[in-house]
Amino acid sequence: ALSDGSKGQRIKVRNNSSSRQVEGTVVASGTVEVTL
Description:
The protein is mainly β. The protein has one domain. It is built from no helices and three strands. It has strands spanning 10-14, 21-28, 31-33. It has a three-stranded antiparallel sheet with strand order 1-2-3, with no helix packed on it. The chain is globular. The mean pLDDT is 96.
């Protein structure tokens, strides 16, 4: 993750393989759901 967030918040995360930044929703501690 590129920032901290609480459950339900949208944060930016980086794909380590492609270095692409995407936005996802925090669903639990340490887990972000990204919809493509």
